[in-house]
Write a structure and sequence with these properties.
By secondary structure, this protein is mainly alpha-helical. It has helices at residues 2-22, 41-85, 97-103, 105-108, and strands at residues 26-30, 36-40. Strands 1-2 form a two-stranded antiparallel ribbon. One of its GO terms (cellular component) is plasma membrane.
Length: 114
């Protein structure tokens, strides 16, 4: 899986580099009434992309952290419930299968009519 992830990141990096090389023309951006900025087109596009990506990425990370925390709490609660439901092993022994058969005579006797 790590190999596939690395290949994808390499493809994204090559695509961004090709985009930057092909779109290096300077663009004038009017920021306020008399303030202008001349910058390459690719810088504007990458900044616009990051402006949209970063808030969504932060929301995704927060939700993932919240769900992971809930899962860990549920797993702890399940482990505690299993520990409380399991018999104590100190001083007690579970019956063997032969003792279980002797304790239930209806299973040990042949069925009626034979």
């Amino acid at each position: 899986m790590q190999f596939v992830r690395t290949i994808i990141w390499i493809a994204v990096a090559v695509t961004v580099a090709l985009f930057a090389i092909r779109n290096g023309a300077p663009v004038t951006v009017n920021l306020w009434s008399d303030l202008q900025m001349v910058t390459p087109l690719w810088v504007i596009v990458v900044l616009s992309f990051l402006t949209g990506l970063l808030p969504l990425l932060a929301m995704h990370r927060a939700a993932r952290w919240r769900w992971r925390r809930r899962l860990e709490q549920s797993e702890r609660a399940l482990a505690d419930a299993r520990a409380a439901a399991s018999p104590s092993l100190v001083g007690e022994s579970s019956p063997t299968p032969a003792e279980n058969m002797a304790a239930t005579p209806e299973l040990a006797s042949p069925p009626p009519g034979n």
